[in-house]
Specification:
The structure is a single chain. By secondary structure, this protein is an alpha+beta fold. Strands 1-2-8-5-10-4-3 form a seven-stranded mixed β-sheet, with helices on one face. A three-stranded antiparallel β-sheet has the order 7-6-9, with no helix packed on it. It has a two-stranded antiparallel sheet with strand order 11-12. The chain is globular. The N and C termini lie far apart (60 Å).
Length: 309
């Protein structure tokens, strides 16, 4: 079946007549088979008007409250000059969102984003895990982030095929513009050799409005843009998902006491690792058990609260 093509976007050039790269752009009504095929082949797609304004407003309120009341952010201090630069000295990052930002629960299990991610990851896994959920707020004066592939967190040499191991959705919580640091992407770089570096005309930016998402596979080159604005921060929320048998980048379970986790939905808890990945139907095994049982069952029955000393 021939899939509808992405909506056309005006193409700039690099000043020498070379057409600049663009990220394929899809507006509503969303044709998800076409969007997902584009992500598989080109590595990324901008999808317009996915997240409702009410949820965007709730997320911003809760993030504002957390930053104001509970966080004194001194900037990164990992001990590595290179990694601190990668994280951004003027970029605020907030991790562990399931425990800190209640509105993130609805976003993590979003009725459009999650099914699309499940389908994209289905080539490797019959279950999806949340690898990380992170607020990334790029402040004025921040330089552009180094290009990277998210799959490098596991192993740079993971085979790159039509099926991604890791899929992310960057959700715009404020406008993303070329001036304020819209995410930079190198379309098609999911097919490149690992040592190939992008040139200017091969780099595109995900210009978006609040509620739009950048859906991308983890092996495409990308990075935060430079914020050249003087008084405007760019805020986004990245949802990163991985095949259900990979270890997530952010261990969200450690931030959740069992009694707090027990108040969450089964769907969210499954994404946080309270689920078994069963591949016995394809002659595989089972991972993610608790005492050789179902961790969600153990949580619901209060087994995780017991003092076993």
């Amino acid at each position: 079946m021939e899939l509808p093509s992405a909506q056309p976007t005006p193409r700039r050039n690099d000043g020498r007549g070379t057409p600049a790269a663009r990220i394929p752009d899809f507006g509503p009504p969303h044709v998800w088979p076409a969007i997902e095929e584009t992500v598989r082949t080109e590595g990324a797609a901008v999808v317009r008007s996915v997240v409702a304004p009410e949820l965007i407003a709730a997320l911003n309120r809760e993030i504002d409250a957390w930053v104001r009341d509970e966080s004194e952010w001194p900037g990164p201090a990992t001990g590595s000059v290179m990694y601190d630069r990668f994280l951004g000295r003027r970029t605020l990052r907030l991790h562990g969102l399931p425990a800190k930002i209640p509105a993130s629960h609805e976003l993590i299990t979003h009725h459009l984003i999650l099914p699309s991610v499940d389908r994209l990851l289905s080539g490797w896994s019959n279950r999806t895990l949340l690898s990380a959920a992170e607020v990334i707020q790029i402040g004025p004066g921040e330089s552009s982030q180094l290009f990277h592939r998210d799959t490098g967190s596991w192993w740079p040499e993971l085979p790159r095929t039509e099926h991604p191991w890791n899929v992310s959705a960057m959700v715009a919580l404020t406008p993303f513009t070329e001036e304020n640091g819209a995410t930079r992407v190198v379309p098609g770089s999911c097919r490149w050799p690992l040592d190939r570096r992008p040139r200017g005309a091969q780099i595109a930016q995900a210009v978006m409005e609040p509620g739009d998402i950048l859906l991308f596979r983890g092996d495409v080159l990308h990075g935060g843009g430079a914020n050249r604005a003087t008084d405007e921060a760019r805020r986004g929320l990245t949802l990163s998902y991985c095949a259900g048998w990979l270890r997530p980048v952010d261990n969200c379970q450690l931030g959740l006491a069992p009694e707090k986790a027990a108040r969450m939905s089964d769907e969210l808890l499954g994404l946080l690792g309270y689920a078994v990945h069963d591949s016995t139907d394809i002659k595989g095994g089972v991972v993610g058990t608790y005492d050789y049982g179902d961790p969600l069952h153990a949580l619901r029955n209060g087994e995780l609260d017991r003092d076993r000393s």
